[in-house]
Amino acid sequence: MKKPVSLFILTLIAAALSFFPPSLPASTAADNNYHRLTVGEESGKYGFLDLAGKVEIEPQFKLSTDFLKSLESPN
Question: What total number of domains does the chain contain?
Answer without folding.
Answer: 1
